[in-house]
Amino acid sequence: MMRWFILLLLFLGAVVNFADKSIIGLAAAPIMKEFNLSPVEWGLVGSSYYWLYPVTGIFGAALADKYGTKKILAVVMLSWTALQFGVLAIAALPLLIVYRVLLGAFEGPYSPIAYNHADKWFPPKLKGFANSMIVGGGTVGAMIAAPILVSLITIFGWKIAFAILGAVSFVWFLLFQFFTKENPVEVYKEVQKNKKAKIEKLKLKDFLLLLASPTALFTTLAYFSTYILVVWFSVWLPIYLVESIKMSPAQMGYGVMVIGIVSVVIYTGISMLSDYLFKKNQNWRSSRVFVVGGSMIVGALLFASIMIFQNPIWVITALCIAKGLAYTILPIGPTIMINEMRERGGLMTSILTSSGNLAGIVAPLLTGYIISLAGGDKLAGYNLSILFMAGAVFIFGLLFTIFVKPSILKGKDKDQGLDYLESKTS
């Protein structure tokens, strides 16, 4: 039961993480009015969140490998609490920017540490599913958090709404701190009475060689290419559906919701299929790499098809499937990276999430530039951006399929407690 409670908390943590990111946009109008901000100043506020996000993602994950994922997650959540309550003291633009920089800095480590924590609790046959639930927290947050946050902002004002999110983070901290364990070995200590895992000092040269290996390199590039798509869906999809597909705002809203729901079902289902295949054959290439790579390739082709077939029904259908297929790298990628250096699982997953964060910084600007190349023809501009992203996902999905060859599962001793827990709960 504890593993499922932990997964629920990690899922809810991802929802809070998304809500913390998105509430600034939902509160844009009252904040800009209160501080008399120009669009340029508001753009500075928006981008400041990501200034330290990629760096602290790696640093925080490395600390989690050394001191334990549970402890660092607790520190992270307490930081979110303090910062969201600190909003009550913001009275000018500089403080608002400092708040966003610090919030991004402390939210950066969440995803890689959450993946690593789940990896300790779930056997290989469930790792893909567990990670897909964490990924899904952001998607579900996009559908559930937005209307709730808008209501809170409308009723209580933007500062109180931020503080309420801080209170939610504190409740999460209490539940996670007092009702969970670091790993299954703490639950069944008799499995490893005389064994204490010691993390050897990491040699920079060896680590860089590992990152340059085909498995780590092309897994990271595949993740990066998909995250460009992630950003496009969050930033450009609504306006694309209205301006190019000629949907009404109401139709666009329902379309975005349907795409979100169906895509979660698809990438969760494929993650479960990958887990099932791994359980049957214990083969990383056939159960993980081929499933993810094939999904990315097909997803890229479906995404590209909306340049040709622009009937609204087909566009929504194609985007539902394309998003679900392309996103399979998000839950499975961390599993592959952790396997390459299990004793540094948090650090390895942080490489992936930081590459995604870099895409979050670059992709909106790059997409805007690509669209501008078409001049006044917005449809041609959107199609050009779609072609670029579909091409990137297709190429890196293909390279991922060809070159990624994960090592045979390492760290067997580390998994003994998990194996024991599995025998008790299955």
TrEMBL record:
GO terms for molecular function: transmembrane transporter activity. Its main location: membrane. The keyword Transport applies. Residues 6-409 form the Major facilitator superfamily (MFS) profile domain. Coiled coil: none annotated. It is a multi-pass membrane protein. The chain crosses the membrane at residues 49-65, 72-91, 128-150, 156-179, 207-233, 253-277, 289-309, 315-338, 350-372, 384-404. It is found in: Cell membrane. Signal peptide: none annotated. It holds the Pfam family MFS_1. The keyword Transmembrane applies. GO terms for cellular component: plasma membrane. Keywords: Membrane, Transmembrane, Transmembrane helix, Transport. This is MFS transporter. It comes from Neobacillus citreus.
